[in-house]
Amino acid sequence: MESRSGLLSASAVRRLATRLDLRPTKQRGQNFVTDANTVRRIVALAGVQPDDVVLEIGPGLGSLTLGLLEAAERVVAVEIDPLLAGALPDTVAERLPARSAALSVVEADARLPGAMGEMIAPILPSAIRATRRPGQDRVRVAAEEHVLEVVGQLQARSAIIAAAVAAGRLRVAGGLYDLDEGRVRLVV
Asked: 77 with 143, same domain?
């Protein structure tokens, strides 16, 4: 049964994969969503708003991309596979022609290399959460959330520290160097 909207059904995914002579590879972790209701649930759970610009890593055949385009202002899709990166704009043009201009496809490896990736990876969840706080300095919010997360992890890892904090004998805090103020600011 075909999807009522522009979303891909299981049969549409199979036809598209056959047309592209595509065989998913484990090396790239390729799995393709074949259920339009699953796509709708993912988009709803992500809380995508009409004025959002969404960065999608690994759009594959475009199942989720189509759902994101129905909900967001724009989608920037980063795909490492040249075959899939080349086919995605055509899929969107065919399934959601009115939203084609809202898609940008970047053919690239989205993984950050070496030391840079290792430095940024721990703060990414906090940075993503910070984007949901309009009107605030998102970098500062992300850094503060990350410090609080690390402080919480330190407390959780040690029963001794947790007991001392609970008894009021110890206070665990993290610090951020505030470039605007030129000093270290405690984040508790």
From this structure: no
Residue 32 has pLDDT above 90, yes or no: no
Query: Residue 124 belongs to a domain with what CATH number?
Result: 3.40.1050.10
Q: β-pairing, 174-178 with 183-187?
A: antiparallel
pLDDT band at 1 (very low <50, low <70, confident <90, very high): very low
* Number of domain units in the chain: 2
Query: Could you give the CA distance from residue 63 to residue 95 in angstroms, rounded to a whole number?
Result: 10
* Encoded tokens for 111: 């993984």
Local structure of residue 8 (DSSP, 8 states): P
pLDDT digits (tens, 9 = 90+) for 158-172: 777 778 778 877 666
Examine the domain organization and report whether 160 and 104 are in the same domain. no
State how beta strands 103-107 and 74-79 pair.
Answer: parallel
- Write the pLDDT tens digit of every residue in 171-181: 666 666 555 66
Last residue of a domain, one of 111, 145, 170: 111
